[in-house]
Amino acid sequence: MRFLLKMLLSAVAVFLLASILPGVGVDSYMSALIVAVVLAILNAIIKPILVFFTLPVTIITLGLFLLVINIVIIKMADYFVSGFSVNGWLWALIFSVLLSVLQSILYGVLEKDKK
Fold this sequence. Notes:
The chain is mainly α. The protein has one domain (2-114). Helices cover 80% and strands 5% of the residues. The chain is built from five helices and two strands; from the N terminus they run αβαααβα. Strands 1-2 form a two-stranded antiparallel ribbon. The protein is globular, with a radius of gyration of 14 Å. It starts with a helix and ends with a helix. The relative contact order is 0.18.
């Protein structure tokens, strides 16, 4: 149940950011839900592999290379989901950072309600 609630909150965040950012587009709320699921799958499977193989670069850049990995994950979601589009690497970076912040806020509210 908790996983479904987090997916719905992520879909709301994706839909909200797509309506605010001009370089990001989502066709419908169902597309936003699919993007949230695809991002969860990519973050669970692909991101740890990318982090492992780029660990030396990540250490040298003091963790800033993780932003590049987040951009790659967003662009992969753009490739896999037909109703989702991100125009360029800069918009993927902005979308990634804002999505992380918005998800942290929404998940924090969810945790506060739990207590």
